[in-house]
Structure formats: structure tokens, C-alpha cells
Amino acid sequence: MADPRQQQGRDGEQRDRILGGLLGVHCGDSLGATFERGSHPLTAGETHERSAANGGLMRCLPTALARRHDETRHRETVLISSVTHREARCLDAATAYNDIAHFLLEGEQPHRAIDRAVSRLAGYEHDGRARAVILEGRNRSTMPIQPGGYVLTSLEIAVWAVCQPRPAEEVLIEVGNAGGDADTNGAIAGGLLGVRDGVRAWPARWVDALQRAAELRRLAEDLRAVRQAA
Questions:
Q1: What is the pTM of this model?
Q2: Cβ atoms of 58 and 26 closer than 8 Å
């Protein structure tokens, strides 16, 4: 008969592997704190200096698409990031990113959307680091050369990407080919590029290969309805 403690250990390990595969190391660790130690979900995200990874930034875009009002968008963005990434740079990056997306959705050109988002930073930023990388990304001609999982590098890549006057497909391929944390950086940059150019920016061969593409289209309609109702 199997030792119940061994089975419990295997179950816990399998759960951790599933969480890790779905959400990444930082997300899995934070959710593990919620499940195992009884932490409140909104305080599970780490806050130490070395915890400024990009998972919260990757997840926050739907709030920008659904929420037109600044206060609601900012509050919900912070809550979403805090589940896994509660460090100050993560919160500032996610909020600024969602402001950029919001202004793009309202019809602003990329540089103007970025400038307006930067002007809002004074109302909530913890320090000036997010502002600095946004301005760097806005003005640089080449992509940042360290495409890792650091949240401010990912933000700078996304800002750089959306300012490029090239087709979204071409820019996103360049982000992916840079290596590093390519999938997450691609998701973050692709979010702004998609809001900038619309669904027609993406080649049909990509869209047709997506899992749950029909579900994503329905969710897009739902987000649009929420935004219009606000």
C-alpha cells in the first residue's frame, strides 16, 4: 500500500509542475503561496528588489481594452499584477502599458499615446524607472539588446515595437528572433501592436493556427461591450 505522505508529495509536485507550466516560475510561486500558506491572492506577489519579472505585465492588457475610465483601469491593473508581481516596477510598468493601450484604442498615434501615458505617470508612479525606460524605448532606433524577463526591459521592447513604422508582423518576428524571454516579450509587444493596427495586422496563417481563436473573438466582443457600456 502506497504511503499517503508519498502520494501527497507527488500530488503537490504535479500541481506545482502544472502551475509552473501554465503561468511561469514567478506566477506559480505566488499562487503556491496563496494555496499553501493561506496568503491573500492580492498580497501573494513578491515585492523584493529581484522580483521584478514580466508576468504581470503580460496579463494586464484585457483591463485596458475593457476599462475607459482612468481610475478603474489603474485600480484593476494594479490588482491583476499584484496576484503574482507586486514589486513597484511591475505595478508602474503594467499601469503605464495599459494607459498606452487605452490611448491607442482611442485612436491616438503611438508617440502621442506614449506621451499621454507618461504624463499620467506622475499621479501614481513609485519612482522614475518606468518613465525612463518608456522614453528610452520611444526614442531608440533599435530594439533593446537584453531581451530577458525583467519587467522594464519587456516594457521598453513593447514601446519600441509599437513605435516602429513597419508592419506588425515584421516587428513581432524581430522581437521573437531576439531570443531571451521571447514568448512573453512577444506577447507584451504583440498586444500593443495589435491594438495599434487591429486584427488585420496578423497574417491569416497565424490566426488560423491559434487554439481557441473563436473563443478569443467572442471575448473581444465581450470586452468591447463592457468598454462601450462604461
A1: 0.83
A2: no
